[in-house]
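Below is the record:
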Amino acid sequence: MKKVYSLAFLLYAAISCLPAQSTFDQVHAIFQAKCTGACHSGGSPSGNLDLSGTTAAVYNRLVNVAPTNPAAVAAKYKRVVPGYPYRSYLLKKVNHGLDPANDLASVNLGASMPSNSDTLAKGEIELIRQWIIWGAKDTGTAYNSNLIHDYYNGLGVVENTAPLTPAQEGRAGYQVKFGPIFLQPGGEFEYFQVYNPDLPAGEEITEMHSKLPPNAHHWVLRSLSQAGVNAMPVQPLNGNDFNTQILVYQYTKFMGIWQFSDDLVLPQGTAHYRDSTEAFLVNLHMKNYSGTQILAASSYVNFYTQPWGTGNIQMKTDLSSYGGTNPFLLQIPPTGQPDTLQNVCTSPGETRYFWNIQSHTHQWGKSFNMYHRNPDGSKGAQFYDGNYNENYTFNQGYYDYSHPAVRTFDPLMEVDMTNGLIFEASWVNNTGATIPFSLTTAGEMFVTYFQYTNELPTTGIKPIDADTKDLKVYPNPTNTLANINVTETWVGGTLTVNDVNGSKVMAVQINNQKTALNTQNLPNGIYILTLSKNGDTQTKKLVINH
């Protein structure tokens, strides 16, 4: 019998036989269609950027290549920085409001492109953004393009909007964004991604404010060693990949976890220390509970900072996982009855002063309690009841694994870690099969997160301007000129000017008690002045407002 094929089937068959297009092939096609006609081709292209030619030629003109715009160079942008949309000048030029926080911030950065009627569609801009987020590779497919198409054609949940940055609030610090990562209806993911703030000096972090998207299971922040920066790629890493977990355990240290948008303000007199060689590893675990809508999942954290050496006591963080270095020992049998396990946390000879502590299980978790441990190993006084609400203000009568209680101690809770603590959790597994350890909610976890110090803070963190009797600056705010007055003791010292990100913008020698500081070439904003001599320092804020 002769077979008859429809036109749609033949078209599908023809397309399916074509070589698969890489993500950069698609990006390159956009450039050819909308950017090369009038501006970016020929012998004298705009910005000295020729986007015509082969994919290989265009790729080599973009990735990790410095732009010709002086303001972009001064801001440390490259045309494309793999993994970093906010440092990619090309994306800023074509952003056109897709991400309001990534539009061109200054007229000195030039005009948005394309400048004619061929302005890119949102889906096309998103394609470029996703290509950068996923490592700006010249081969391979970075994402599911069907999700982006459907998202921008009416099937998407509005993306989480950015909060004000520390600079916009008039404070020292910076903002880190993860994503967006597109998630299909009913889907779930857990991704890790490196973020290197690329600062020239160490810093002290006194506050961390996070904003999460709807349906976030958790948002975790870790510090990442220099070796980890070198070992881990910049594109998001799948948390279900065993190799990813090896990298996480080998190179990172827990800093904070959020199940909901919240501000972590460290106790007075404490700070997280971040060395200039360290980066961050951000980790978002999402589940899309919608059966029809696509989620563009993005999260933010604002870091509020002070110069290295300002704080008194280091805030430390850690976690205790059932099974220790082998969490796969966690197995929940299908008994249909409460199954209770204990995890003991000790550190002989150490005293810890706990600031906050919280529990973590997945969907089969039914209770989570914490106790002081007696010298004979038995349970002592209970100090954490998992049935409390997320802010630990009242007992709600049940354990909510998706929003577990975070208990904060004021004053800090002293614990002799020779005896240590006991963590006790229970589950009910009525699935008919043993539930193993897993990072997703398809499996289970038994983890306790906590932050602590090894001594009690006795004084507050020394704020900028707290002790500046020998350093006077006026007018402040200033526009083009600031007068610096010092006492005789500081003559011969050096005055360093850093921006709010910790980058040094200038340094002057103090040869007299009165020095004029020319600020006319510095952008508006807040700057930190540090006067140094023979190992002593004084600091002061300077506001520039032209």
Summary: The chain has four domains: 20-143, 173-311, 317-453, 471-544.
